[in-house]
Design brief:
One of its GO terms (molecular function) is purine nucleoside transmembrane transporter activity. It is found in: Membrane. The chain has about 375 residues and is mainly alpha-helical. Helix content is about 70%, strand content about 0%.
Length: about 375
């Protein structure tokens, strides 16, 4: 997928001031192309991007820690943990009602086109949430966070295959380093006293494999979201972000509810609530807090996808990598072993490799007068100015 070159003949003062960041084939007319120019990225745009990044970091960190707290305090329902990851989606209807209507001329794809997308993506999200729920129970939260960082490596591949993201040496370095970091954790599992003491034999490796599988599927989901906005939705307003997030997560929540009923785990919920370590009120607050945190993180991540790219959104989530293990050591008593420390440093180095690549793309875009995301998708290396 290559973006078309557009000849600009519109004076800068006539550009409408509306939410920007369209990148893709749809809406590639003069107005959409003009919004993609570096000049259209003012202070407000960058502040909104930074705000979304902050929400992703806080939401993902809090949701992961609360998910582990649920298991540590006596929770045991995998399907309930799965439901919390998408069950907060009805709250988005309130935001949708308070959000201004779409501007005149905003693309309105037919329902017949969007319903299959919602069903497909929602089902995929539901089973990905289930894999994460199992993995979080079978792994210490610090190890879980580090292995989950491989989603950046997987997303580099899916972004290349689906979103035409340029695969440079620095991004390849990020993929290799993050993969080795995850492998190091798997090989060094015997040194993790938490896993050896608290889990049945073989559960640690199962959690490791499930986390890798869930990370790969999550990377695919992010790329599919990006291509959905480019080729199906067209519009990139906040209302469309809320619509897509709410509809796909309602489907994911329906998958979790069906699993909860079919597995019979719903019968154990009252007893689980009564036996929860800190009481019924804390049980409900934990599930509610987890649900809200996941929705906040998901909406902000989807906004980053529509503003920049799925890979950028994934990299932002990876920044929380050093935060979760540190909080897990303080809150849950996880051991910060030498293996984890080395893996964390390797993963952080993989993140920095991508950040530096983004910096190079930004310099090249500034030199050539094009959008840095479009530059990242262009083939070949550019010679940067001194």
């Amino acid at each position: 997928m290559h973006l078309r070159n557009v000849t600009f003949s519109v004076h800068k003062a006539s550009i409408p001031e509306q939410e920007e960041s369209g990148h893709g084939e749809n809406g590639a007319g003069p107005k959409a192309a003009e919004r993609r120019r570096p000049g259209a990225r003012g202070v407000r745009w960058w502040l909104m991007v930074l705000l979304d990044m902050l929400v992703v970091l806080c939401g993902q960190t809090v949701a992961t820690l609360l998910g582990r707290y649920y298991y540590n305090s006596g929770g045991n329902s995998k399907w309930m943990a799965t439901l919390t990851q998408s069950g907060g989606s009805p709250l988005l209807a309130v935001l949708l009602l308070l959000t201004p209507a779409d501007p005149v001329g905003e693309p309105r794809p037919a329902a017949a086109k969007m319903v299959p997308i919602y069903l497909g993506l929602g089902t995929l999200i539901g089973f990905d949430n289930l894999m994460y729920s199992y993995a979080l129970q079978y792994l210490p939260v610090s190890t879980f966070a580090l292995v989950a960082a491989t989603q950046l490596a997987f997303n580099s591949v899916t972004s290349r295959l689906i979103n035409a993201q340029r695969f440079t040496a620095l991004i390849a370095n990020s993929v290799v380093v993050l993969t080795f970091a995850a492998a190091l954790l798997g090989v060094g599992s015997s040194s993790d006293g938490t896993s050896a003491a608290d889990l049945p034999r073989g559960k640690y490796m199962l959690g490791f494999v499930l986390t890798l599988a869930a990370s790969a599927v999550f990377a695919l989901i992010l790329s599919l979201f990006e291509v959905t906005f480019e080729r199906a939705v067209g519009g990139r307003t906040f209302r469309w972000v809320l619509r897509v997030q709410m509809c796909t997560n309602l489907v994911a929540a329906a998958v979790a509810v069906c699993g909860l009923l079919a597995s019979g785990e719903w019968k154990t919920i009252p007893g689980e609530m009564s036996a929860f370590e800190d009481g019924r009120a804390r049980y409900v607050a934990t599930l509610a807090g987890t649900a809200v945190s996941w929705q906040a993180m998901s909406v902000a991540s989807l906004r980053l996808i529509t503003r920049v790219s799925s890979l950028f959104a994934n990299v932002t989530g990876t920044v929380s990598l050093p935060l979760v293990p540190v909080f897990a050591v303080v809150l849950f008593g996880d051991r910060m072993t030498g293996i984890k420390a080395v893996a964390m440093l390797m993963a952080f180095w993989g993140f920095l490799s991508y950040v530096y690549q983004h910096y190079l793309d930004g310099r090249r875009a500034a030199a050539q007068g094009e959008c840095c995301v479009c530059a990242a998708r262009a083939g070949g290396e550019a010679v940067l100015p001194a």
